[in-house]
Amino acid sequence: MKNMLIKTCPLILLLFTLCQQLPAQSAATWIWYPGDFEIWLSNNMQNRRTERGTFFPVFWKYDSHYPLIDFHRNFILSAPEEVKIYAEGIYNVKLDGKPLEGAPKQITVPAGQHRINVKVFNQASVPAIYVSGKTIVSDTSWLVTFEDKEWIDETGKTSDVSATKWLNAGRWYFNTPDALPSACKLPVTVQHAISVTKNSNSTLMDFGRETFGFIRLHGLQGTGNIALYYGESKEEALSEKAAETLDRLSFHHQQKADSIMPLSKAFRYVNMVTSGDIKVDSVSMLYEHAGLKERGSFRCSDEEVNRIYDVSKYTFGLNTREFFIDGIKRDRWVWSGDAYQSYLMNYYLYFDSPTVARTMLALRGKDPVTSHINTIMDYTFYWFLGIYDYYLYTGDQSFIRQFYPRMQTMMEYCLGRRNKDGLMEGLPGDWIFIDWADGLSKTGAVSFEQLLLCRSLETMGLCADIVGEKGDADRYHQYAAVLKKQLFDLYWNDQQQALVHSRVNGKQTANVTRYANMFAIFYDYFTQQQKESVKHAVLLNDSIQRITTPYMRFYELEALCAMGEQSYVLKEMKDYWGGMLKLGATSFWEEYNPAKHGVEHFAMYGRPFGKSLCHAWGASPLYLLGKYYLGVKPTSPGYATYTVQPALGGLKWIEGKVPTPQGDIAVYCSTEEIKVTTVDGTGLLRFRSKTKPVCKTGSISAKGDNWYEMTMQPATSYVVAYQSLKEEQHGKRK
Amino acid sequence: MKNMLIKTCPLILLLFTLCQQLPAQSAATWIWYPGDFEIWLSNNMQNRRTERGTFFPVFWKYDSHYPLIDFHRNFILSAPEEVKIYAEGIYNVKLDGKPLEGAPKQITVPAGQHRINVKVFNQASVPAIYVSGKTIVSDTSWLVTFEDKEWIDETGKTSDVSATKWLNAGRWYFNTPDALPSACKLPVTVQHAISVTKNSNSTLMDFGRETFGFIRLHGLQGTGNIALYYGESKEEALSEKAAETLDRLSFHHQQKADSIMPLSKAFRYVNMVTSGDIKVDSVSMLYEHAGLKERGSFRCSDEEVNRIYDVSKYTFGLNTREFFIDGIKRDRWVWSGDAYQSYLMNYYLYFDSPTVARTMLALRGKDPVTSHINTIMDYTFYWFLGIYDYYLYTGDQSFIRQFYPRMQTMMEYCLGRRNKDGLMEGLPGDWIFIDWADGLSKTGAVSFEQLLLCRSLETMGLCADIVGEKGDADRYHQYAAVLKKQLFDLYWNDQQQALVHSRVNGKQTANVTRYANMFAIFYDYFTQQQKESVKHAVLLNDSIQRITTPYMRFYELEALCAMGEQSYVLKEMKDYWGGMLKLGATSFWEEYNPAKHGVEHFAMYGRPFGKSLCHAWGASPLYLLGKYYLGVKPTSPGYATYTVQPALGGLKWIEGKVPTPQGDIAVYCSTEEIKVTTVDGTGLLRFRSKTKPVCKTGSISAKGDNWYEMTMQPATSYVVAYQSLKEEQHGKRK
Predict the structure, then answer these.
(1) Phi, psi angle pair for A382, to nearest 5°
(2) Among residues B98, B289, B348, B673, which is most buried (max CB within 10 A)?
């Protein structure tokens, strides 16, 4: 996440243009208006939050899909073709502009050049089509619009000047006619409790670790009620009055029957309480998961770190669902700040770009913009940053090309809410979140928000350039430059050698917090000298309010890693994440304060079991270990170029893989040897060595101060013999 | 529609404010976010257009209801109360901010002051609730929002600064728990054919006149296909290849059964063609209608005019459905230009304000504005004019208060599309409709569009004043003033004594059409002298392209009536509408050209039966006879003041009623006597008399040139003896 120069890659542009012109080659799939299925699905998914059996939806605006969509594509056929048409919704079909009678399920398209239009209405779920012939298939090369604006005058003539905006259709994994998008469900696998404790009218089941899915009751018989109390802890499951989630059901089964709970839940423990003469033979669960392939990996000489990595992976997997959600017990919502970290973790584990795009589309929703994303100012900015990183890691411009107008209206909403100094300050309805931290001031114009806006404006400039909006690009670059200058003019305090937290009533406050300072490090907004001062004045200074959430630990540790403090960060990681493991955590938590004891750890929001014990932002070691220990990161979009800069951080050896669009880069590093297997793209290996390093297949250059670099060719294995510096540089705590 | 000064009536404002504060007194009804049900229902209704059995939806954007709505209201109870809660959608209930477990169907509200919140999600249909207790009932005093923006921080504290915008809930006629809004259907009554002609495998049924509804097949038995060909003419029903609407069904009934067609259709004739061994005992239809009460009436000494009035009424009734639609065969869509005329007719027949409001909401849809209403520039402006008239006729400010933001964004869309001279000129995607007329130029900046924009800006100024947006009001008034000046500076041609049709490339064209000129008459934009010149130079000048559509005849005849040409207009009315009746019309047509013959009358859009024979805009005599013959019109909002200025137009006598918010004004006028029975509000009777008129209960003032005026008190009957002028003033054709 360093301030890399991202420029439009001509090769990628060319490929994109070519793809637009090629005939459809892919297999048929269900398609829709891009972004619409994502909105529809996220509404449904976020509705699955319940609290004590009560529906608990979001408090911001839900948008809707467009209920009426026109799909079309031109085809050139060498022979006539039978084409099957499936649609979700009522529909019509036009061949070369002429409507066919009724709603045909199969049509014959003659040889030659033809256009097929399908127009679909569906209010309940997303208008979608699946078209399948020998060469004519529905895929993302189809064009879609929600307003075709093609009128017919009294003579039967159609409008001759079209202003219709066409986008490429959206898709996911619905690749057969009967895999209906509206019936979208993640896969499930059966799991069983590892221990069952029966009492008179209750049964406590322990599934061994944090899990997620649908409880299934087997051999249910009789008349009566069943209550299921779900617990991420045993204490929660046993607390009928305070368990956060539950199911209460009435049954009247003369014959034995099975029953699956309607809503998936997060739990390790389930306490089943029965009344009446009801009997249940046994209980199992259907574990629900996204089924993504783990591409990234990490192993090292420290078993505790390996365990941290594994539990991070498990935590992240549980929270990677239809979208990247915050936590599986609650909120099960798509929060932009949480999702942003998930994007980054994803680039080092699944590299599943569609989940990133889906999440960004769900978060953005539709115009008009009536509030910040999730109502939170910083979360709006993370949305822009997510796009920056998406392009950097994947090189995919299609998201930007299709959704630039949504980016623009979102940014204009922000710009329209600046104060008289041009700074973002909370207006009524704006939640300034930053972090959960006691007494953290949200008043006035907070430096952290300006910094995020500045980075967002840089992103907008980049995207405007990509879509060829020169005027926009100039404007956004200019705004970013002005704001960046203001950031230092207005917030930098020479005495404190740091950015201060805020300006209130136009005056700098004396308060220094970590937030803006650590972001300014890995955004490269600071000079090297400022970085060094800030490292000591803020990051390693205990008198500055400490960060207690894994959410902001993510960035704090990233900033330290970016400053070469891998040894220090590793120790912190073992303390913090290792601390949770020592308390028996099977997944990482929403928040962890080592000063608390026992059931205090489960409380939050004023409720005894309010805390989520499986929160995506708890999985940040995935990202840190991949990016700052294996040391792999792109330096131009889509890993066309990248660096590998392994750091042991005091470990004897590390090894693992980092996924890229072109395959997985494998890295091994010990104190004496570095091994890298590359993929397409040009890599740069960077490392320090006491002695002159040796590589048989590559050419190593010395860069001074024990630094060495080697350019690596695509799809090649390198072995470097070197000698690591005994004492790695690390910060001393004041 | 004269340029009356509409000002905010303090009494109405006071009543409005009082109503907001009174406890709920009304009976329980289903409520929703205002405008949302209207959008949902109009989508569904407009989907009912089919052509040759093919789904034929609109070509503009369908909007959606908000799928997630929070409803709340505060109550003060003297005793605890049991309250039943029904919802369309999944929901939760909060009492005083605390969620109740599950989705309770009944709650107990203790005595004292309490707040009830119900939050409902529904994607398929509109989130709606029905709440019913002794005093706690759901009605339009409940407040609703689509984003409550009430977050909870880590301590459990909720946001303390709310920026939530609350509107009053919307409702219609769903007044029992089981009258679900999502199941909305208009009432039906059974009707039978007046003649049935059977052939070998076909049966032709004649229902006697144009009608609308669902065909029901009785005693259906056997296996085979049935095709129903609907015809507004016999020729259409008998044309299996060209009938515009049809049903094709396959049956396999061993036992006799009835079958009702899924979609209502417009027809007078139905041709049923069977194949296979299928038998049908008989056929009936379910006539579907809005069931509105006819309050206005008109009778006169000319039976042809009476017949024109009756067929107008029937035509209008058929097209007054969930919304005011254009025509019942096709398009069955809500078109703003058509609807605007229906609003005006409605004020003289049903005075059903909710249908006007519903139609305006359906037309407007939601932000963002991506095109003109129905894609037509003039239709956007008619939407504003509809609001002007709605307020003038009903005095209801609630529509303006609730939907001012939608008016504003619509107007800003228009203002953002002006050319460098500040004039509206068609951009790609803008349909300049004006009228169906051979060779009518739509190029450049058309005077008619500027005139409509000017009136729309005046409306915006008025509405901004009502909602207290002083800055907006000033801006809109200023824009209107500038544009009005431009209209004369840029379009008035002294030589032609008229506004020219357009400016192309910044230069006035020589072309004069009727459109802008006739609107400028009844908007009082012309001086009296200009009106007289225009009357002769344009309205009564045969060398100016004639109007052939009832749509624009509406305004042409209104302009002539506004100039006192009732005798001339009556003759035109008898020629034009009488002409359709002489051809056997049982409802009035989309278009009528006396020069055509036989089946030529049925053709349009290049299709032999493309023309609609029952089009709302064909019913304009309803409006003309009420407003310009009975002569009743409001002069301040909601008929607080009004004029009655009867005009015989050459008839011996006329009589009828005109509905107002306070009741019906009854008028009788012969050549010797005028009788008026008034309602609440202050009326002004205006008439001309050769002799000094006499009224026992009122005080008549002479105004010169044989004009007399008498102020009329509320709820009083007046009889005036007078002597009408023998030769009424009327224009001579050149």
Answers:
(1) -60, -30
(2) B348
Interface list for A 423-482 with B (CB within 8 A): 427-431, 436
Domains (ranges, CATH) in chain A? 10-183 (2.60.120.260), 188-288 (2.60.120.260), 630-721 (2.60.420.10)
Q: How confident is the model at residue B549 (pLDDT cuts 50, 70, 90)?
A: confident
Report the alpha-carbon distance of residue A404 to residue A409 in Å, rounded.
9
Strands laid side by side in the A297-300 sheet: A297-300, A653-660, A663-670, A673-677, A717-721, A694-695
User: Which chain B residue's Cα is nearest to A154?
Assistant: B605
Q: Give CA angle at B568 (B540, B500), nearest 5°.
A: 25
Q: Is B151 on the interface with A (CB under 8 A)?
A: yes
Give contacts of B149 with chain A, Cβ < 8 Å. Answer: 59-60, 371, 375, 429
The pLDDT tens digits for B332-377 are 999 999 999 999 999 999 999 999 999 999 999 999 999 999 999 9
Tell me the per-residue pLDDT of B687-719, one tens digit each, with 9 for 90 and over: 999 999 999 999 999 999 999 999 999 999 999
Interface contact flag, B163 A368, Cβ < 8 Å? no
Total CB pairs under 8 A between chain A and B: 181
B371 close contact with A: CB closer than 8 A: yes
Residues of chain B in contact with residue A152, where contact means CB-CB under 8 angstroms, are 605
Choose among B152, B159, B606: nearest Cβ to A156: B606
Mean pLDDT, chain B, whole residue set: 93
Q: Which of B519, B621, B620 minimizes the C-alpha distance to B562?
A: B519
Residue of A nearest to B92 (CA): A55
Q: Which candidate, B643, B465, B647, places its Cα nearest to that of B557?
A: B647
Three-state DSSP at A125 gives coil
Q: Are B658 and B664 in contact (CB under 8 A)?
A: yes
Helix B447-466 / helix B514-522 crossing angle, nearest 10 deg: 30
Gap from A42 CA to chain B (nearest CA, Å)? 12
Q: What number of residues does chain A have?
A: 734
Residue B59 C-alpha, separation from nearest chain A C-alpha, in angstroms? 5
Contacts of B326 in chain A (CB under 8 A): none
Contact A156 B60 (CB under 8 A): no
Q: Determine the pLDDT at residue A550.
A: 86
Query: Taking residues A594-617, what's their average pLDDT?
Result: 95
Which chain B residues have a beta carbon less than 8 Å from that of A124? 123-124
Tens-place pLDDT, residues B647-694? 999 999 999 999 999 999 999 999 999 999 999 999 999 999 999 999
Give the pLDDT band (50/70/90) at residue A20.
Answer: very low
* Surface-to-core class of residue A182, CB atoms within 10 Å of its CB (0-12 exposed, 13-18 middle, 19+ buried): middle
Task: Name B107's bridge partners.
Answer: B83
Query: Other CB atoms closer than 10 Å to residue B103's CB: what's the count?
Result: 17
**A56 touching chain B per CB within 8 A:** yes
B336-347 vs B550-562: helix axis angle to the nearest 10? 50
Neighbours of B606 (CB within 10 A): 11
Q: Residue A54 and residue B92: Cβ atoms within 8 Å?
A: yes
pLDDT over threshold 60, residue A186: yes
B55 Cβ under 8 Å from any chain A Cβ: yes
φ, ψ for residue B238 (rounded to 5)?
-85, -10
The DSSP secondary structure of A649-714, one letter per residue, reads TT-SEEEEEEEETTEEEEEEEESSEEEEE--SSEEEEEEE-SS--EESSS-EEEEETTEEEEEE-T
How far apart, in whole angstroms, are the C-alpha atoms of residue B336 and residue B449?
15
- Helix axis angle, B36-46 relative to B353-364, nearest 10°? 80
